Amino acid sequence: MRYSGAAVSNSDFKDLLKIAKKVRLKATLYHEWNENWVRQILEIILQEGKTPNDLSDVPFFEMEKILHQRRINGDEVHTMMVRNSHDLVMIGKHIKDAVVMPSSEFGIQGATLIVRGAPSGVSKMVKGFKAWKRPTSISFVDAEEHNVNEISGLLSESQSKVFRSAHSAGYYETPRKITLIEIAREHDISRSTLAGHLRAIEKIIADYLRKKLDDTS
Q1: Widest CA span of the chain, in angstroms?
Q2: Among the residues of the chain, which ranges form H helices?
Q3: How far apart are CA 63 and CA 82, in angstroms?
Q4: pLDDT, tens digit, for every residue of 74-129?
Q5: What are the residue ranges of CATH 1.10.10 in the chain?
Q6: Each residue of 49-62: pLDDT tens digit?
Q7: Residues 209/216, Cβ–Cβ less than 8 Å
Q8: How far apart are CA 183 and CA 187, in angstroms?
Q9: pLDDT 10s digits, 84-97
Q10: CA 208, CA 147: separation in Å to the nearest integer?
Q11: Class of domain 143-216
């Protein structure tokens, strides 16, 4: 979900944006639902002349610890642990199958909220954010499409090219409709080079599948 800079600046985040240019979620460590707060690791880019102590002026923030401090392109960037009691973090109080993901951020340029989980949970989360303020845009990424993109990102350009060619030509059908030699000639490479590419691809897919199975076991 995306919100414009104007939408965020005119919301109850306006006090925060007087102090910070951007706030990015790095991790959520703990939920204290009974007291209505969560402990988070945030990366905060401060406005010129502001310090972490100024965050005490934000009603829904309680800074607990500064973990890291650095300057990037002239900006003061602080990684810190905070208690966040904003109403938005309470949206997840009764939603067990969806979460707001790291890299979600609010800033003077707008906000991007990344939600991941089961369709029912994501739907409830989106409904909660809409109740706070209607987003500028909402994009949905199918989990299966995400997995395919993740695997393809592990392949080199050469591996992707020969795999598409082999698959389209029927190399993985039973019986095979094309031989390694024929595919190799098409790409002007040796049979052993082609075989190496395909073995590497098969190992990448196998390792990826094994990791996913371990994650769900």
Answers
A1: 71
A2: 5-9, 14-17, 119-132, 143-152, 157-168, 180-187, 191-216
A3: 4
A4: 888 999 999 999 998 889 888 988 899 999 999 999 999 999 888 888 889 989 99
A5: 143-216
A6: 899 999 989 999 99
A7: no
A8: 7
A9: 999 988 898 889 88
A10: 9
A11: mainly alpha
